[in-house]
Amino acid sequence: MRPRPTRGSPGEWGRPSPGKPLRPPEAGASLLRFMKLWSQFFVPTLKESPADAEIASHKLLVRAGLVRKLGGGLYTYMPLGLRALQKITQICREEMDSAGAIELWMPHVHPVELWEQGPRWAAAREIMFRADSAGDGKRTSKDPEFVLGPTHEEIITPLVKTEITSYRDLPKNFYQIATKFRNEIRPRYGLMRAREFIMMDAYSFDTTDEGAVRSYLAMKAAYEKFFRRVGTQAIAVEADTGVMGGSFSHEFMVPAEVGDDDVIYNEASGYAANREKATSALVPADLADSAPAGAVEEFATPGAVTIAALEAAPFNVPADRQFKTLVYVGDGKPFLVILRGCDELEEAKLGSLGFTLFRPATPEEIVPVLGAKPGSLGATRGSLKEPGALAGVFADHAIRLIGNGVTGANKDGFHLRNVNVSRDLAITRFGDFRRVRVGEPDPKSGQPLQVRRGIEVGHIFKLGTKYSEKFNAVYTDDQKQSHLMVMGCYGIGISRTMQAVIEQSHDADGIVWPWNCAPFQVLICVLDPQLPEAMELARRLGAAAESTGADVLIDDRAERPGVKFKDADLIGLPLRLTIGGKGLKEGVIELKWRAGKDVVKVPVAEAEARVAAEVREAAARAG
């Protein structure tokens, strides 16, 4: 047997010799094996922020030694950052397992044929990395043979198709926590918009639409538990399904000034949606169509090719009395979108029209179809040069508020007045295409809508049969009849969540970690590590903290107290205990919570019990 160490022996409990770990007595070995000494760990803090860091969380990630940049959108997770990431990952895993999901692992490198067979290759390929040979030989094709996966719908669906054929084996929900890749053109904000990131992605398979809704709601509840345990405020908001497709979705947004999206909400009613999905009750449900105000009249508008120009003298047409006609190309065919002149198009809402790909038309594509250049365009019956060339004319509901207004004559330098929505516009169908503005009535309560910025950290989709149709993922029921599986997909940005926590929980001095995802929960600052009694007390307090479930880091560096306290605030561990020679003479240690300002002096005789009690209470609050 190894000799039992002598208490206070500098080689064991005092400042250890270089290369020697801090070793506890045998009786406590199982409890204390994770206790770390700062001098033997690696926490490379920085005084200055990197020049390319634009937001607080990005600066703190680097300054606190959590990550280091390799290249644009590529980061190494340093030991402290990896510990936080692992804790967030484990919380996610626990909640997914609790919700009945089953963990697996899928390849990062995907044969391109599977993506070509799926429903979104044309739209998704622009954000994907190819994974072909790096050899210097010539490629045989400009198209890739393999790609790096941003998500795994095209991989999991054919897998489940092969492995599950009977209703008896459904429902199932499979998930993984793995690295993903996205070819960001402008990576920025650290882990927020990275080219390589860590994500939990899950995929549910059900026999019926009702079952798919139950799976969706179970995941929504699991997400809410996950974000609550991580210690960040995340709001579930209605969201656009985008390139993923499906019938509906929710994003989980962490409110933050530097968020990458707007959340439109009303606190009283509980309505919340992201900018791309948000609607309002601007157009009353019982609004009657306006009767024509007179015959359509053409009038000259030389040089007036903008909404603002028509608002000005001598025309004096208010923007909310103008019809704005936009031309897009969807899957190779032009279509028109009509808005009020005072409204902006929310381009993501055009996804509801069913085009796989769409983009603004060029002037060269517009003139042959409409007969005029941008600035004089309209959609009145009989004015379009080639109406048969259009895939449709789609109007926002809010143009009905105009009733009778002004639009382009499809003749350069001319407009039309007294244009009536019902009588004169060649509308294929109405829809919601405009961007909602603050102050408009909430669709639930009619009260004014508000806006705040948010960081997207999770997204859930009810996919329906979009992918199972493409891969013929079917099951047989009890009557031996075949049916398509009904799918859902779910994602949590693990690495993004770590940064979102920091963005939401920091102050002027550094990070303020929530309890459950802190790299260590307790930091013991030993101001005089050369004193054996100080290191012995640090060991005892660390043991008390670890025995009640906390991870402990002991700062045993030979640094000035000011340096230690600055670093302690910067890395932001929740509970700091300070042991100094002066305090030991007085018979006290200091206890301070990172989220507070008060420093409490605790008698040494009571310190172990007090630390254990504080840790238990903190863990109970965190859940």
Characterization of the model:
Helix content is 26%, strand content 26%. With 623 residues, it is an alpha+beta fold. The strands form eight sheets. Strands 4, 7, 8, 9, 10, 11, 12, 21 and 24 form a nine-stranded mixed sheet that branches. Strands 1-28-27-29-30-31 form a six-stranded mixed sheet, with helices on both faces. The chain has a five-stranded mixed sheet with strand order 16-14-15-17-20. Helix 2 crosses helix 12, helix 3 runs antiparallel to helix 7 and helix 3 crosses helix 12. The protein starts with 28 loop residues before the first helix and ends with a helix. The N terminus is likely disordered.
The radius of gyration over CA amounts to: 31 Å
DSSP strand count: 31
Largest sheet: 9 strands, mixed
Q: Would you tell me the structural class of the helices and strands?
A: alpha+beta
